[in-house]
Amino acid sequence: MTIKGVEEVDSPREKLIDHGIEVLQSHELLALILRNGTKDQNVLNLSRSILMNWSLNELFESDINDLINISGIGIAKATQIRAIGRIFELLNENDVDSVVNVRKVKNTKKVIDIIKNQYKKYYCDIINNEMETESLIVIYIDKNMNLINTSFLTSHLKKKIFLSNSFLLKECILNKAHYTIIVHNHLKDKLSFSKSDKNSYEKINNLLEKIEIKLIDYVIFNRNGYLSIRNDEKK
Question: What span, in angstroms and rounded, lies between the C-alpha atoms of 63 and 80?
Fold first, then answer.
């Protein structure tokens, strides 16, 4: 199923189902709410044109009369937008915490969820195939398998990322980690562990063993999915 007036390859609905809502841009989120466009514009182009003159905050804080006067928005779309705006108001009034709760790091999917939540632009760039360099994330975990902290390393000059032993040891000790997980993106569409990945895994594992910290996983991912070296869990 696709949104009316939008090619399936560009459909925000399909993109959401395949990759999660975090990868959607503002006009794509608005397109999901509006559902369809006009006789002159498909819903994505309509959403773009609206957001050229209105911010999302302004849109959802507007009253019905203002919304109806926006080109391409009639009574039906205006009431949908206003209803969502009212929900935001009620959430704020009740002081509902909108921050995603960090759960125990039980599996590779939870690892990817951490990346989505903490590094949204990085994750979105990878899913949208806009990443030109490799980046690396170190996840620090306590003895109860709860997330402590993360480190993000990237290189704007080289495609390959370098993780120094001194940095890793220092951050593991400062964060009082019992376990760590290494995550980095692959630029190629084919998702498989390279010889370099396997060597890095062994070297990092041996290094951390010296300070009694366990490397519990090494995860690679790209726009097509992820792969865990621990159990070859692939998705």
Answer: 12
CATH class of the domain comprising 8-93: mainly alpha
Among candidate residues 115, 129, 113, 114, the one with its CA nearest the CA of residue 224: 129
Estimate to the nearest angstrom the gap between the alpha carbon of 6 and the chain centroid: 23
Q: Where in the chain is the domain with CATH 1.10.150?
A: 8-93
pLDDT at 75 over 90: yes
* Terminal Cα distance for the chain, rounded: 23
- Sole residue written with tokens 């002081």: 95
* Range(s) within the chain of domains with CATH label 3.40.140.10: 108-228
CATH fold, domain 108-228, is Cytidine Deaminase; domain 2 (3.40.140)
Q: Judge whether 32 and 80 are in contact, CB under 8 Å.
A: no
Sign of CA dihedral 23, 99, 154, 26: positive
What is the 3 state secondary structure string of 92-150? HHCCCCCCCCCCCCCCHHHHHHHHHHHCHHHHHHHHCCCCCCCEEEEEEECCCCCEEEE
pLDDT tens-digit map of 85-100 = 888 877 765 543 333 3
